[in-house]
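Problem: given the chain below (408 residues), write out its structure.
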Amino acid sequence: MRYETLLALRYMRSRRSFGFVTLISVISVAGITTGVAALIIVLSVFNGFGSLVTSILVSFDPHVRIESVGRRPVEAYDTLLTLVGQREDVKGVSPFVAGKALVLAGNSMRVVTIKGVDVNTVSAVSGLQDKIVIGDMKLDDGRGGGILLGLNLADRLGVVVGDTLAIVSPSSVAPAVAQFGMPLIRRFHVKGMYESNNKDYDSFYAFVELKDAQSLFQTGGAIDGYEVRLASINRSEHLQGWVEDEFADRFRALTWHDLHRELYTVMQVERWAAYIIVSLIVAVASFNLLGSLTMTVIEKTRDIGILKAMGATDDSIARVFRSQGFFVGILGTTLGISIGLTVVWLQDVYHLFPLDPTVYIIAALPVEIRWYDIVVVAGAAIGLSVLASRSPARRAAGLVPVEAIRWE
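Solution.
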């Protein structure tokens, strides 16, 4: 072991008395420990919420949605369907038609998104059928069009399974307003209700048979695109790139992340804001470390002068104090990671911070450890500690031996 390292360790642990310099060193270690532990816990909570949101969305949404750039006849999708279906990473493909329409039920009305799906294939790409809480998904039972409503939407419209509601087609509104014809109105029977735990869907989406949606929106045999579910969600961007390469400007592909880009952008901004704010704890601890090392240089002026008189170089003297800052960072980071991981484990197992299950869909704050976060936090904490030691190290290296031992 180099003598610079031995001296750095000795200066950290060997004190004649628990004085002011030692107190600042302890505060520095405690500050780094607190900051690192807080970062690990906060980032784990954000990871937990992010994974929870993703699981809720992906369990209901497809992994990739492929749309035409402008609505085309259904024949234009034949080649796309064949090529997509031949890929080994594709588990299911289903066509869809979607658009806004006005729903009327008694004295209630609401503008919602009507989505036409193929009931024979939609289960292969979406978790819609698994989310049905009342009724079933038999949208075509011979009695006419059936419709599946979100639980919140059904509550606001005041309808139950078996009720009939009317939907006004947006394609006929303009001619009706201009008095060139009557608005196109279709009646649907409520066949079931679903709950996706996503208010955007539960309050503003209704599902009907594909042919009923084509009739409602007067698209003939056209569809809006295909929804695709893959063997692994991690292949979504790969399929997106393949579609763009194969079909250029004819089709576009949206991954599950693209479908909810605004939500994920907000979550990412919140995550970075929390990271920066909590990192200030480590930054303050680094300033304490700078003061501690500066006081150590003053206290060890005689030792530095003797070392230089014995032949120690300026770089060796500087390395002593840089090593001390590094060891303080290592100690604080190790303790902080240990405490942070312990708290996260206790929360995951024993639910230290529970939530009201009647209000929230989870029983406790979700947490998830990602080793990438631990590496980044540890690197930042140790890096700040080393950076804080540079100024005291330069000061120690610049001491003149004669001046350092003159009064000794």
